[in-house]
Amino acid sequence: MSVIAPKTNLLNFDPKGLQQFFSNHGEKPFRSTQLLKWIYHRGISDFAAMTDLSKGLRTRLNACAEIRPPEMLVEQDSKDGTRKWLLRLDDGNCIETVFIPESDRGTLCISSQVGCILNCSFCSTAKQGFSRNLSTAEIIGQVWIAAKMLGQFELNQQHRIITNVVLMGMGEPLLNYEQVVPALRLMMEDNAFGLSKRRVTLSTAGIVPALDKLRDECDVSLAISLHATSDELRNKLVPVNKKYPIADLLAACKRYLEGTARKKITFEYVMLSEINDQPKHAKELVKLLEGIPAKINLIPFNPYPHSVYKTSSQAAIDTFYNILYRAGMTTITRRTRGDDIDAACGQLAGKVLDRTKRSERIKRQANETTGGGETCHSN
Ligand code: SAH
């Protein structure tokens, strides 16, 4: 009985990896540039259509390789123009990807893991537990599918619909470093998506050793999910703080900028009513970030079923903003987008085949306290 080897998914390779693939197969390394352009400039996944490759090479590729992004299951459109896609992975897990159009940019928010292990107390992804890391193909595949759905491949390279990518969907990207970094390289590589490094942002709760590694290996913009000004509170909101407390995290942020052309780090701060949104917190934040070139992103908390927190009042957000602004800090208040289709920050759900017992436990607790209700809204 002959065993058929699985095909190699070329979406798993960054530019160097693709070169290696070709030389392993006795082909010239420059074939990788041709391939990248077919895949990421033109959106072609069928080798037969790649007319500048010899017929022989196309046949050989077809026999051993494939270009296979996740499968698009459902598309939802928000009344504000936000679009969300539910994508199915080979093992039955599902992830969500969101496109947020604005007048001057189009931002794609992608996931890096199925679920998340960090268990931040205000995040709905946390309630679903964790299944696994995404592969590079599943990460870059989200950008590829979105580009296809948005018609970007029909436009020439000067006209982009997706101008920015943020890793702010499900998961902690720095806990999936080995798969995330090749995907980031493909986003920024000219022969692939060609986005500038200022427009590709990795958001992290602050995994300090991985931050230092990233600093040396991949030039992307960084967003830190800070959310609190004291270790005591941050330990509750972002439990990984117990391992990497605020002082260590901010020291790593300084190292991230030192000796590089990088200008600023974004600090995300979710506004939770009566928890972290008081004027004293704003003043503490100013002090804490002294000496770090920073941009602060105030995110109104997006509620979800059974969430224990409340969104800060507009007055509290305005007061907080004004304290930062008067202290000379670059601050923006993020507008909630796509909440009618559950596409706002922290609302991405997908379908997580949870390998931890967390989601079951949470469902049980919710049933006990309210007599029913689902936390996952996209199945
Ligand atoms: N693990 C990464 C990326 C995923 S979360 C990180 O922690 O940065 C992306 C951003 O959305 C984070 O800043 C996160 O704190 C925020 N977020 C999560 N749940 C939210 C909610 N319910 N409302 C508003 N923002 C939320």
Account of the protein in words:
The radius of gyration is 21 Å and the shape is globular. A ten-stranded mixed sheet has the order 3-4-5-6-9-10-11-12-13-14, with helices on one face. A hairpin with a 5-residue loop joins strand 3 and strand 4 (83-88). The chain has helices spanning 15-24, 31-41, 55-64, 136-149, 177-188, 208-217, 231-237, 246-257, 279-288, 314-326, 358-370; strands at residues 8-9, 65-66, 71-77, 83-88, 94-101, 106-109, 113-115, 130-133, 164-167, 200-204, 221-225, 265-271, 294-300, 330-333. Residues 370-379 have low confidence and may be disordered. Helix 4 (136-149) runs parallel beside helix 5, helix 6 packs parallel to helix 8 and helix 9 runs parallel beside helix 10 (314-326). It is an alpha/beta fold and 379 residues long. Residues 120, 122-124, 168, 172, 203-205, 225, 268, 270, 299, 301-302, 345-346 line the site of S-adenosyl-L-homocysteine.
